[in-house]
Fold these 4 entries.
Entry 1:
Amino acid sequence: MAIGAPKIKSIGAAQSPLLGAAMFGPAVLYIVLVIGAPFVLAVFYAFSDARIGSSGLHFVGLENFRSILQSPSFRTALKNSIVFTVCAQAIVVVCSGTLSIALEKPFRGRGLVRFLILLPWVAPVSLGSIGWKWILDSIYSVITWVLVWLHFFKPYNTPMWLGEPHLAMASVILVHCWRLIPFSTVVMLAGRTAIPKEIPEAAAIDGAGFWRTLFQINLPMMLPIINVAVLFGTIFTFTDMTVVYILTAGGPFDSTQTLPSLAFATGIQGSDLAAGAAISLFLVPVLVLIAYLMLRMAHRAEVV
Amino acid sequence: MAKRRGRGISRRDFVKLTTTGAIAAGLGPAMHFGQAPQKTLKILQWSHFVPAFDTWFNGTFTKQWGQKHDTVVTVDNINLVDLNTRAASEVSARKGHDLFMFLSPPAAYEKQTIDMTHVYQEVEKKHGKKIELGHRSTYNPKTRRYFAFSDAYTPDPGNWHKDWWAEAGFPNGPDTYDDLRAGAKKIRDKTGHPCGIGLSQELDSSMAMRALLWSFGGAEQDEQGNVTINSKNTIEALKFMKALYQESETAEVFTWTPPSNNQAMLAGRVSYVANAISVTRQSEREHLPIDSKIMISPALKGPVRRIAAEHVMNCYVIWEFAENKEGAQQFLIDYMDSFHDGFVAGQFYNFPCFPSLVPNLKQEIANDPRATPPDKYKVLGNVLDWATNVGYPGYATAAIDEAFKTWVIPTMFAKVARGDETPENAAKAAEEEYKRIFARWK
């Protein structure tokens, strides 16, 4: 009891409403200032005639939404955002799942391989994207140079990685995968190590092979953690504009434009803040759905 | 106590000393012992494509001006593609530089800038009238105020590879768009080298496409500011670009950023680009073997006229929230007195908006010892016969500014060139986009 008494006292202090509010306050303040205020401002702008250079605002109702829905660039950006996210996530899940299997069991140099795989996630996204821009450049691309050297292409008839719409979209998706695979691999590795060793061992004794163990034991048991990786990855991909902006700036002719990059191009570079804000609000329904799914998963995990 | 003294300093003395030191350090910069704080002037402009200009402007002129006016002048140079983003953030924060230089007419920012009529008047008293290009790029006829001050513009000539064009039957380079198409195809077929007219969402492509559009008689708007992009002339220009692209270009032109056509020309890859003299200035500076092969020609002649946009238009604004508005205005007025020094330091990149500032311009550029041959830049002597403003034949309005910055024109040309749209549909789509933008700025 002598040892337990102060423990009970400290729990009581933690339950004090004032202390609780004080500890919770910074988090609330952070969310209000960094997320809440800009979001409210975006909603406010989306229903106004705000321009970068204007000095006053007027309420214009749904005019901005009507205007951007007429824009072909917006329709392309909306479609691209979905294609970009779905394709990137599909590739990321398959690659990171494979890597997590390869990296699970010890082998010589595993530490170094893990370090190298993690590098793209650690490096600033802008730096990585600039590196890729040079790798895929129309004049100085090292990939193109190798392909020409191997006589796959003639010097002036090479693939333009960022110049052909489909190649450009594929390049944007692959660079994004390059960045996200390390994060997803780490999450999946954690999921795999959490599977009790007895279960796959018992399955092996019962005659289950690699694929059966993978699809009927490992993957179902890892599903909650895969969901976490996918949901985080979806948020990172759907809201990212750095890779698109640096690699293609939305080109060629808006064919790789996504909602965030178009919102930036319209609102900041094009001076039309209201239209930019309205475009960015189209991200919200998807993000709300993801947030709901994540909270639901977190709640389930608590119950379990 | 004696023991304490022997240790050098007491705890109380230490606290006193450090507290006094901290207060002095904190207040020090603000205390000038009776002197008025020195004025400051903050300038933001691009990192010039001819670095020698920045050396003169930052290291010589602004320092001399600052000493004369007891002002600390700071110049921040940033990449040209970041100018609009930086301007947006300064306006949103209502804080930033006193003088901000854009490279295209920033009409969308008019309400955030002070009227530059006074600056123009003062400069015109000393140096005579400004050119029409400067007027149309910085004046709003509706509000009757100048939202910017233009000291200089840069011509947008053609740069072509002498040997290849001579072999193709054009020893003096292409003079018309028909020459360009015929010669570029011959060179592409024979040597593989493509033509390098940009079709990307960036400044150089945007200017090149406007030149093509105007030369075929098309335009974004008429003199009264009505949208006119969907016309027969525009469709003809689109058809031409489609043919030129398919016969002589590669998809690299869709990927370009402003320096890309310089790089392609200097790498000996392309036969022709529409660009300022930064291409040849770089080859001279770096003593590249290709330097003597690259020649300069005026804007190409189209079926209707010979015309091109200025390549860049220096447009200085003074923010309405600037801290040193008077200093910024005086700086611009005084800068014009030294314009000729900048013209020489910038290796003729910045052409004057007040012709009397470089009275012997034709003679000066006709004999440049850096160039091979020395009269390489002579063709730019009559640049004002064919250079015009963004928004031609109207003014550079806020709607034109937004259309320019959202790349409507190069996007329209690129879609047709690649065959993703018919010329008719692309012109119609561009018309809808222009009408949408114009409606938002009414």
Entry 2:
Amino acid sequence: MEGSRRDEVDCASIDDLFQGLRREPHNLLEALRRVQSRYGYLPLEGIKKAAEYVGVPLAQAYSVATFYHQYSLEPVGKYRILVCMGTACHLRGNSLNIEFLRSVLGLKPGQKTTSDGIFSVEEARCFGCCGLAPVVMIQRPEGKNEIVGKANARTLRAIIAKYRRLEGGAG
Amino acid sequence: MPWSLLDKCCEKCWHSPKTPCPDFINCSLSGPLCHSDEECAKKRKTRLEQLQHGEKGAKIKVPWTSCTLATGAEAVYQAVVDYISKRGLDITVSISGCYGLDFIDPWLEFVTKGMPTAIYANVKENSVPKLIERYFLDQDVSGAFALKEKTGNAKGEDEVPLLSELDFWRKQYRWVSRNCGIVDPESLEEYIASGGYKGLSRALKMGPDAVIDEIQKSGLRGRGGAGFPTGLKWRITRQQRGTPKYAIANADEGDPGAFMNRLLAESDPFRIVEGLTIAGYAVGASRGFIFVRAEKPLMARRLQRAVEEARKYGLLGTNILGSGFNFDIEVILSAGAFVCGEETALIAAIEGKRAWPRQRPPYPAEKGLWGQPTVINNVETLAHVATIMAEGAEKFAALGSDRTKGTKMFCVTGAVKRTGAYEVPIGVTIRILVEELAGGAPDGVKIKAVQIGGPSGGCIPASLLDLQVDYETLQSAGAIMGSGGVVAISDENCMVDVAKFFLTFTSAESCGKCMPCRVGLRVMWSILDKITQGKGQEEDLEVLKQLAETVRSTSLCALGGTAPNPVLSTLRYFMDEYEAHIKKGVCPANVCAALVTYLIDEDMCIGCGQCAMNCPANAISKLASGKYRIDQSLCVKCGTCYVVCPVRAVKKTSCSGGGGNG
Amino acid sequence: MVKVKIDGVTIEVEPGTSVLAAAEKAGLRIPHLCVVKGIYEGASCRLCLVKTPTGRLFPACAYYVYRDEEFISDSLDLRIERKVNFEFILKFHRMECWLCPRKGNCLLAKLSKELAVEGTPVCAECPLSPEECLLTKGVPCLGPITLSGCDAECVESGGPCWGCRGPISRVDVLENAFSRYRELGIDTETILRKADIFWNSLPEFEVVKKVFNRVRTS
């Protein structure tokens, strides 16, 4: 799971991923999602396999992969911090929170994943928890999500510290 | 597993998915209908009683939805289970949906025979043992948030208000959300016990045309935003000659600030499945799809489960309830794109393509999914359909305003005391929503505007709060009903910044297919950005209006067509704020970063160091006096110090001199 | 057969024909850019908008007629909408016409003339190929920074552009032109001096000078 995951993923044994999925073009979104959930992103080889499986040209699969927000063509951090950018969250201070997270994690403009590959910070669309604004969601590698309501600088700092501890205390 | 209402009561019952009984729903509640047997009737009565109070006569309900999980319901659930097993108490623990009252999350509901049902608000996991002891062992309800009824035999009953007497409950009319927070969303049995699937069994006996007549008689209009009459849409689809036809539930709820679809689907998913089945029956479709937003995974799981359960008991599949109607539903998860809420884009997404909308006409009713006639309804509309078919069109039509019948769920968020989702008859005023249901502004701030309808809607100033919520009245005021998100904007927010925020959203979410939306919104955004930097010029406002007009009238789909609304409405009602930015270079609400300076009031500073500790730019240093000061050359204006200061010693000021042309 | 009436002209077509095709059949010109029959009919460029008598706008390329209908294809408001949308299209076009092999022979240049959008430089109308370009011979030509519309008459008759139609005000185009001048070793001071002849009192000239100065010092 370390730094240079990019082209080393082995997609040979990918076919079991698509089990139970009908080979119909309209299942492309689902096929890509399964690839993404296994590798954390969409490796080119994975897109090819998905396209082949559902029977669409690679070009169409690629156009879909680049269109939707949930797909990432680059490896993302082990913990994805999704900062809700809905109306209520924006008004209650999430645009400040994202700046805070970025500067605490030392992310340069345009960079979304920390150099150690542990965290990535992304803007996200409304989670529908507007009553608890501002909301931040942390996607954990095991697929579980932690939703933090009423987030502020203090709670975010505590959360980052918590996950840093899980990663062995360093940094 | 105890006997359930959906199981056979005795050997004489012959219902199964393969041999469906037309009276299955009625029979499971008030049966047996095909034979008479005291034993079988008693079985049902006992079971209904059990569902009410739990199998052991006592029950704890934990809400299991996204909003309560975000506030720690999982830990509370664990604490309840742990404590009950530790003490060996005979209490059933079940999950439920959510009342939509976000300000009491996470809550617990205690039910037991002979005691009033009590709701506890904002429960922490460490207070669970105390609450259980007090309620179940001491029969004391004091400390509860509200009671569902009074029995007079529990301690402390007088101190706790009745739920039905509280403003935010009394003023609601819970028609479509009637089951939210009441039933277990994963149990088909509970749904049927609460009157579910009556609508479908009635519809199947009436015939498709009569169903459409009934929906037309009710006056139901689409709850997704545009307000197109549902019955008419169905009729057009039914009249198309092409087969197969499809029915789609649009659960791609993307408007920031709106979560009623999520709430409904997570708390009462069967109602949506039932509604879609009725829609499919009415238009003559054979396959249905529920398209769910990617950001709401629990909603998708619940719907998926509901579909599987319904299939298991023959409420989906072939020959549903012996009517000869075949219908099955597939739940499809989006991959995240706001534009999928647009019906033609949604169709493209289901087909496994880029979610690009296409020019209408032809409308989906004529040429939709895979070129076939397709009916697309919003989740809330379908939930209404199921309820109308069960309760009758007259009851629904009696509610609402002259032009628009029935009720609508609104999500009130932002600067209000009681954020949550409330269902009211259409035609109530915005003031009732914001002030009476949601409790008005929190202490210390004032509401200066409400934003209705998400990124397609507009901002309505506080002076117009007495406006009725209705498709037409809102439109004439420059907003739209949209999906029903109401965000209260306080005087701590800058309206130019709000307008810019919505354009940031819509320009990022533009699919890029047509020019006015792809480029026009970006150009408009850059003008607003210039204004928030204090570099705007007076001509900019005129240009902004012209661009907005072109984008509105020439965009391909509704995303671009409505995206200028927030700008146009703020220009209409909050011109003074635009002018302050342009002419004086001042942000009146102290929001726009380029125009704001943060200062620490040394008289108020208590020297706790919170600000310096949390400053990401290390711009705050300690003075010899023990107080702190911000180095303006290092400050990145992130506002963290302002938030963390415990005594509000950090001040924001907006001074002219940030540029501008004055 | 159905009858389509466009700007008062009645055309009989097969049901399912697009308004654009109907107009073309009658020899009526509706400006359009993105549509290629059978390859792309996505109605993206929004230039071929036509109006129904009730005032609703539809793209002519993707509106198919199945019954008798009437449209207006030319009116002041349609012209404005088309113009603004075409400006949006040009907004992110690099417009380095002096380097482009299509030179003047492209849809963008044609449309900008047709829709009276002031945006393309004289180079878009220049008869010379990039290889023959006067700039490559070191001649201080004002073509890259001058508004088109003259059919590059001066170049036609053998000389460089003198800038008589006034400067382009788009900053990115000016920047590109500046780096082109520098690349070919043409002194930008000379360019500005030459421009001063026609542009002397124009406020837009100040923009050009500002951009040139900024690029020079950066």
Entry 3:
Amino acid sequence: MGRLNIFGSGRSQSTLPNYIILILLALFAALPILLLVSNSLKSTSEIASSPFAVPRDFLWSNYGEAFDKGNYAVTIRNSAILTISTIAGSLTVAGLAAYALSRLKLKGSNVLSFYFLVGIGVPAQLFIIPLFFMWKQLGLVNTHVGLIIIYTALQSPFATYLLRSYMLSIPEEFVDAAKIDGASDWQVFRHIIAPLTGPGFLTAGLVIGLFTWNEFLFAVTFLPEKEFKPVATSLYAFQGRFSRDWGLTNAGSVIMMAPVLILFLALQRRFIEGLTQGGLKA
Amino acid sequence: MATVQATAQATGARKVKPNEQKIPLARVLGRWAFMWPILALNLIVIVIPSIAGLGIAFTEWSGYGQPEFIGLANFDRLMQDAVFFKSLSNNIVWTAIFLTIPIFMGLLGAYLLAGIKRGQMIFRVLYFIPFVLASVVNAQVWRFLLHHRVGIGPWLADLGITDILDVALFGKAETALYTVAFVDIWHFWGFLVVIYLAAMSAVDVELYEVARLDGASRFQQFRYVTLPSIRPTIVFTLLMILIWSATVFDYVYILTSGKPAHASEVMGTYLYETAFFRFDAGYAGAIGVVMTLWVALAVGGFVFLRRRGWDV
Amino acid sequence: MKHLKLFLTIALLLFALTSVGAQDVTTVVWWTESGDEVDDFLIPLLADAFNAEHDDVQLEIIGQESLNDVNRTALQAGAAPDIIQTPGAAFIAEFVDAGQILPMTSLADQYGWKDKLLPWAYNSGVLGGELYSIPITYESMVLFYNKTLFADMGWEPPTSQAEIDAIAAESIANDIFPFTYGNASWQPSNEHLMGIYLNNYAGVENVYLALTGQKSWTDTEFVEATDLLATQLQDGWFSGDLSNYYANTGDDIRYELASGEAAMMQSGTWNFGSIGQFFEEQGTEWDWAPLPSFHEQAGEYNYELATGSTISVNANTENPDAVGKVIDYWLSDPARVLAIAAGAGFGEYVVPIHFTVDDFPAGTDERVARFFADFAAVTGAGRAGYTTWTFWPADANVQLWTDIERVWSGELSTEDYLADHEALWEQARDEGKTLPIPAR
């Protein structure tokens, strides 16, 4: 998606009003975040006395304290395990499925596509209780692997959509040639389709990673124990425990948001591409 | 891999299409093997538990021991549960809010963005940032800004503007739900901007030129060119909002947990509390069924409209 | 394809292995609410000491955040620790119903816990003749006040409703909240207030009669008690507005009291541990007084009997005897109990066993010592009230603190609220789910 200007370059209608409103909207979106960061460098009493000013002393120690008290060494590790494994699992599962849906003439692939659409719409609250009791029987509650399986199942339909559209854009000739040479479906996938879908995997991986890192409902249900908690639910507990210590809890929030924000700013085109593709006009 | 690709290019000229040949059964089965992992996962994590979820709704079950079949008793109870109706009506209010305000903001932002040359990218990124941040982080931001003793309220009060933000908006029965919705909108609307902008970029520029030659104002261009052109995208976002509004949980749970006196309770939080704090899994299942009906109606309506030939 | 499956299986197995810790030693695991006092006092003074003296059994104490939520899920998942801690005796009933808790009666007989614990405290853990839980702290409700503010205003701690009214009127005239409170961190905080108003307005005798089924909760005294609290909340006596009450966290209210934004706080002695730091920050002083009677019918002031957190034995534990050994080790040493309690500022881990004055560590805060002395004297004289989380059956208890919000918001009448409450009591009596009430 390039820059576009629907008003053309002819007799120019003034864009000044556009900019005024756009800037106001930008302030609305970004100022609160900026304030969070700024206040994470103040003491609680400074926040109380001058909540909107630039930090006086830049209290970096809030970060060290939040890191310790918020148990981030453990929770970041937990979130990293969940996120990386879910990305790996979902991309594998979705890559295979997308290949089958886009390249192999499967009977019923329309039905499957529809199921994936509806499957995404099933409220988590309907199946979370039975799923919890199933997982309990299988000993998967309070284990990372249990939640990774759930996340993989939840994320793979969307990833399949995304990868499918990438695979459909690969010219048929590559595949045909390989098949004539006697390559099996698996070989075609492994050596031709998968490598050519590389950018698609990156995009899908980013989107999956974002959702996994931030996910709350399943994490709070399936990983209640402190030692397994990811950053999202542990930060929630941390905010409750130090509710009045705004400097500390703000620093805790910034620690959680930093990796996502940096990654997003670095790769924002891919993020947005990932989130806007995949059947938004279903 | 490089060699395979080279071969592919070298032989690409031949005209035979393998797909037209008859495919042996073994190979068809082999092809399905690519689908097994995703199907198995979905079966285990979503399909089976969802069916079980429908079943649980007809039982009395604490979560321990054997569920006891009690027919429609849970639904009878729902019909007399004032808290459930409060939750349901809050979901409806929530839907009404989200079908209007964020859509309007999204369209406005996208349309204005589409009309500028410089800085489009920067604005797009800024609007999108709240959407990529976790609900827990965003909640922290607004819990602070809207706190009655710190934040914006007392600051405004110092300027003489009182009784608007220097009250505990999350603690007031009249405002709790709307305040949570506000925070969620702040997090969500940038996503719509990006989606609508993507759709608008696909609109044929000539249509605008024709409209301009006809003397259409900016609003008329939006009304008669932009809106019809991106209608499928708008309808899709409406559908998504309908679905998400039935299942909303995060922001409510984190910011108010349904308080005070269930004033901000939605079905999602009520179900959660019922299942995990009151050990009433059967009754919670009944709430889940209502939510599923809502979603099914939304998706069904959408499919019906498409069947009727609506271009959505 | 095969390689991929193999790879996935191995990856999953690896994660499974890293997620499940190895357990070779006979270890008794106990989760408690996390906090500095756990790391600094409970673990060194109890776990480390116990482990040093025992080779066969080791005690592992782990601090958890939101312990109550964690326990519920872990119990459902069959992954709970050997010792299960709940926020109060009322919470244990549902776990007992569900068969999750092992009776401790035989352990108690073996070790003589009945004699070690205070009688009412021991009885608070008895259900249907079996001992299911032991309180690991006891507490009561008192009136905290900002001593600096009281001195400035020339106030004395109130000893009657009339005096409360006078202070409240003067407070409001000076833009001070008469009371501070809130339930944002702990929704059941509602019951702290309800319990106080029932005991101190209707009187402990009437509450006793209602608890034992000789009087109905719908009687006038209780209606008036409920209305008194509702009116005060609606009139903004608590933190200025009902909405602030709902938005205030535990930290917020202690801040309001310490900063002098509020004059008084009706709350539990668990605040002894944490309230001091707020006053230090503000350069003010705190003190407490007994909560006065709100009505003549309530007689002289009383202290509510309350057990705080309790511990129980997980029905799935592999070694109940080891658990018994751990518990007995703790209950048998008053000096150790008080040393740990002192570390927690006497806000937690005040195990209700028999102490003498000499057992208190040197340097115990005068205000705290004064409380324990007065509590023993007053309750010994029979002026003991009943906290809702220690003496109410589970369903009635939950209804008490959830539905009261609908009374305060005006959706539910006091009469209907109390009628529902009475109905739940009758149901609990029918089902034999009431908790033991110490005879007067």
Entry 4:
Amino acid sequence: MNAQTVNQIIDALALGSVYALFALGLSLVWGVLDVLNLAQGALFLLGPFVAYEVARALPMPLIAVLPIAMVVTGLVAVVLEVGIFRYVRRTVDDRKRRELTMLITSIGAAAIITQVVANKTGNTIFFIPHQVFQPVTYAIGKHVRVSNLDIILLVLALALGVALGQWVRRSRHGRALRAVAFDARRSGLFGVSADRLAAFTLFVSGALAAAAGVLFSLSVGGIDSTVGDSYLLTAFAVVILGGVGSIAGTVIGAFLVAGAETAVTAAGIGQWQNAIVFGVILLVLALRPEGIFRAQRTQRV
Amino acid sequence: MGHDPVLLASLGSFFQTNASTVQTMLVDALLAFSVQICLRAGVFSLGSVAFWSLGGYTAGIMAKHGQPTVLAFAVVIAGAVVLGAVMSVALARLHGLYLAMATVALDLVVVVLITNATSITGGAEGLFAIPVRLGTGWTVGVVAVAAGVLALTERGRAGRVVRVMRNDSDVAAALGIRVRRMERAVFVGSAVLGALSGACYALLFSTIQPSQGGFSAIVTALTIVVLGGMETWVGGLVGAVVVVGLPLWATPISTWTGVIYGGAIIVVAMVAPRGLVGLVHDGVRQVVTLGRGRGRNRNDSQDVGGPASGDVTAMGIPAPGVPQGAP
């Protein structure tokens, strides 16, 4: 294996980490709450925007800025749940109509967040200030390079992925979460507060999207307000590949999609990678709608 | 003789601004129709925007190559039928959120494809100097025909079939409706309307850019449909007039359209799911009911708008042997 291939694998791992952090929230919210939250791309944008505003006001390192961005974005996601989704869940009985209403309102929320960020940043690329984080590239041997950001991304994605997976599988709240996903109404009879869990799920998904956005923004230098849209497409592919609601599947799916994209770029046809992503979505949906890694239950695809 | 040239010029520009506003309303109404017919039949497709872009580029490129307008429209419609049919087969197994996601993905990927096919489409800059082939009159004609077709699917037997499909596809199948086939037909119809809207846009405004498709167009189309109401074509038209007109009449808000539209979508979807038309309809019905003091009108009005929740309408399909309109 030559150095170039190794570098490409490192790139794919870093990219896959971003995808995993971003898509985990989408998958969790969809799997547990039956909400296809199209505002997830906007939350991915909001995270770096908060980091940018915070770091401009107070010069702080990444270790302080990242949690602030995650918490603020998570709280915005909680506002979506408490202010909108909860109301819809209570007032709309028909399932189809409820899902459609939540989808529509999430698009509205995405439009609001994106417009605010676009106006506040003057519709141009914005950069998280340099004192927040200094990327350092280490050389291994002659040609292999790895940056500290790559390492942070990979460690964070795997750690959060494993933590989330363990939490859902083993903890009391995780069990309640799965109960809600299985049957929200009946789980209420067993004393599970679906409202509180839904708010917490949205918080986690917003915080993860913010982490993905901040680290992605640092790794590419700067982003503009359109970034959420393009990554939403990729996140769809990841979620579909991994199986909706499956945490391990989502993480593995993220690395698979990132690997495929890196391979496509390496082959010199990088501009078609989104088309290939869409092809993956269609193919998986057509052949194996429950995802490559089957979640515990399959239903209504 | 004696005309003030300044006044004339300002009148001319006044007309021009308004002509393009009216044209934009018409184009957006067509796009809204395209979204409406899917959602109304319970098909969660947001693929209209993809067909808007494809139709617009097809018509624009053909016009630039000097092809006649009729031929361009024929190709756009035929292309939309074929591609819509192919996509509907590819998406046949999907329902609900999965279909919504796949069609949003379709919208996003079409933008990427158009941006990358620089040699044909002009890339990110878009197509310019497309010969203007349409006027307001012709566009009104296209919208009127589309509205007529929609009106036919809203009333009588067709309207009831569509409503049952939306409310419960199992019930629809049990009543002998070929749900799969109907869904495919709805998808193709939506594709044609979306493509027509795009074609009209390109031939009216002589330019089209890839960025006009994608997520922002989904937001606009949904705003129109949600605001106006998705039950009838009137809702699409009313929504288009409001959404296109609002930023013009209130220019200071034009930099915050995302916030306004987004907020409007959320509020209306939550508190008035049938949109402005539904609100007006309910208001009128209440006044009429109060005036006559009889419950009869409630039954009459079901054919027009359909109630917000579904259980009642499922009964609207006449059971075999029961005459239509029986209580």
